[in-house]
Amino acid sequence: MGLVSPEILENIAKVALKYNIPLLKITSAQRLSLVGHNPDDIPAIWHDLGHDHLPHGPAGIHYIQACPGLKYCRYGRQDSLHLGERLEEELMDLKLPAKTKIGVSGCSMNCCEGFVRDLGIFAKKKGWTLVFGGNGGGRPRIGDIIGKDLDDNQVIALARKCLEQYRKLARPKERSARLMERTKLEDFKRAVAG
């Protein structure tokens, strides 16, 4: 979710210098990309960054993006950082048909672009709104609103149901946007409502 401490930044700089990494880039997914290293160094780099194993492949939750939310933004209506952490704890290990991107915004300004994420969540005064089946990229698609005015537990439960339905219905390597293009919205909503 783009959260780092000074100690983490110091370690990243140390690793970049150790492995002669010429470029560090902040990505649109709130991650830091280490670019230009020797591909053979990846396991050692990952270890030196404090991880025991390499990240999973492309199928599954690719990232969870979250804005500063209620605590750190004057527009925040809900605690997007807390919700992002909970989603990470509860959903990151799901096996899914293709890479899946999640955006969590603490207000309806939608800084994390929930309508063009596989799963988008944004806050209003009465609670969370959940959007499913969005995509940016070469074939953009605006996602569909699946639920409104949800509390934290309700939005997490609905997110899980949407991802489980996606896993059940999607073809291998099919993104959620393509699934929703060939699925009747009311059928999908009915399936995740129970």
Give an account of the 3D structure.
The chain is built from 7 helices and 7 strands; from the N terminus they run αββαβααββββααα. With 194 residues, it is of the alpha/beta class. It has 2 domains: 43 residues, no CATH class; 134 residues, Sulfite Reductase Hemoprotein, domain 1. A 5-stranded mixed sheet has the order 3-4-5-6-7. Strands 1-2 form a two-stranded antiparallel sheet. Strand 5 and strand 6 form a beta hairpin. Helix 5 crosses helix 7. The mean pLDDT is 91.
Provide a short characterization of the protein structure.
The protein has helices at residues 6-18, 42-48, 69-72, 80-91, 152-169, 176-181, 185-193; strands at residues 23-26, 32-35, 60-66, 99-105, 119-124, 127-132, 144-150. It is an alpha/beta fold and 194 residues long. It folds into two domains: 6-48, no CATH class; 60-193, Sulfite Reductase Hemoprotein, domain 1.
Describe the secondary-structure layout.
Elements: H1 6-18, E1 23-26, E2 32-35, H2 42-48, E3 60-66, H3 69-72, H4 80-91, E4 99-105, E5 119-124, E6 127-132, E7 144-150, H5 152-169, H6 176-181, H7 185-193
Parallel strand pairs: 3-4, 4-5
Antiparallel strand pairs: 1-2, 5-6, 6-7
Task: Tally the beta strands.
Answer: 7
Ends distance: 30 Å
Largest sheet: 5 strands, mixed
Compute the gyration radius: what is it? 18 Å
Order of helices and strands: HEEHEHHEEEEHHH
- Global geometry: globular
Q: What would CATH call the architecture of the largest domain?
A: 2-Layer Sandwich
Sequence stretches where pLDDT stays below 50 over 5 or more residues: none
Share in β-strands: 15-25%
Q: In what order do the strands lie side by side in the largest sheet?
A: 3-4-5-6-7
SS summary, helix count: 7
Structural class: alpha/beta
